[in-house]
Amino acid sequence: MSWVLIASGLWVLAATAVAFLPMRTQYAPGLFLLVVAPILMYFLAKEHGAVVFALALAAFLSMFRRPLTYFARRMLGRQSEPRE
Questions:
Q1: Which among 9, 20, 28, 73 could bridge 78 via Cys, Cβ 3.0 to 4.6 Å?
Q2: What percent of the chain has pLDDT over 90?
Q3: Which residues contact 36 (CB under 8 A, 6 or more apart)?
């Protein structure tokens, strides 16, 4: 098993552990996971191909859809909509 698959598996376990934390304590580890994920996906694509990258990207976008939407709105200068 390649090192990037092991690192990705550990990333998934860390993301699961962060999800169990109270919301106010999720920000710092969640931001770290958000930054590390594209690096891991790059190495996944490099070692295992485009199909594995596409699956990882779909999972990443599914998990971080709200923070990514928030950051995209901030970059475009729009106000973020309140959560329902």
A1: 73
A2: 58
A3: 11
- Alpha carbon distances (Å) from 73 to 66, 76, 78, 80, 81: 11, 5, 5, 6, 9
pTM metric for this prediction: 0.77
- For residues 32 and 10, the answer to whether their CB atoms sit within 8 Å is no
Say what the pLDDT of residue 83 is.
61
Domain residue ranges in the chain: 3-75
Q: Give the residue carrying structure tokens 């891991």.
A: 40
Mean pLDDT computed over 36-52? 94
> Do residues 35 and 3 touch, judged by C-beta distance below 8 A?
no
